[in-house]
Amino acid sequence: MRILHLLNHRRRLNGHVHAAVDLACAQVKLGHTVAMASQGGDFDELLRTNGIETFVVDHERRPGPVLKSVVGLTGLLRRWRPDVVHAHMMTSAVLAWPACKLTRVALVTTVHNEFEKGAILMGLGDRVIAVSAAVAKSMQKRGISASRIDVVLNGTIGSARMTGRSEVPKSLDHPAIVFVGGLHPRKGLPDLLQAFDAVHAQHPAARLYVVGGGPTQDSYTAMARAMASADAIAFAGPQDDPYPWMLGADIFVLPSHADPAPLVLSEAREAGCAVIATQVDGIPELLGQGESGILVPPKSPDRIADALRMLVTDPDQLKAWRAKSQIGIENLRIDRVARAALEVYGRAIGPRAKPSAS
Prior knowledge:
It is built from 13 helices and 13 strands. The protein has two domains: 2-155 and 334-352, Rossmann fold; 176-332, Rossmann fold (3-Layer(aba) Sandwich). The chain is α/β, with parallel strands linked by helices. Helix 6 packs across helix 11. Helix content is 39%, strand content 16%.
């Protein structure tokens, strides 16, 4: 099968980019011919190393550039002749829809950021991939027929992006609690800061490491500095490879208020952390509905604190939850994601398939 992935850019620190790059590389390993079109970025060399051809398609959202990009993409489809175009973001879906109609190429879209108002535009696809069952339900409520939606739960384990990464744990003080994610409101970091401050008052050896950057970094840093536990909180900033931090951690916490299917949870589980995360969107699905990690209500610092106290004060509980993080972890492998996506492509292509010669 010839597959063209389309997304706005290929830069690091964006979950949808990681998911698309992981998927494209895994599909090549399964024997398919894959290309990726975007505005370029950090992963171009990795893609080329894995035999993936790259093209440039502008994603500027002004009428003139949009029209030019549609024309350019249409020409690319006629030259490269994919069987399916897989669009990963809203602008990508808008550009791909007319180009695919003109060239009679199947269009598949993936809803990565369901919380955005414009996510309904992903319904332009012949088939729509939801990265969790929770996202699928949300898209159905927005008017996309369940008959066109396929759930393909995110997973990263075994991806080409992880090749050559450091397997040496970061040297951290213990008990070490780690957060990895973008520093913006929907990730809920203030809830974790409040919870940690309460726990640290009783267990002063505990340490919190915040890995990531974003628009609220300064305000969150100021918030932490005003707490009694300030000296026990470290902001590490954005990291190209946060995995060593998870390898060095005892506990990983994701206090999100909204999160369709965060890739970081499969990495935290692969690293063997005990996991605490909020019961929102696709998070329970990534934690086996609570079998592989502790689920707490969103926006509940007290409940996060309770879970942290249990793990910090009871070595047996910490050991047990670290072991539980491995339950069902095979379901988070990228080859499972790649095979499931290929099945979706088959359903999208089906109506367009030419009858075999008799």
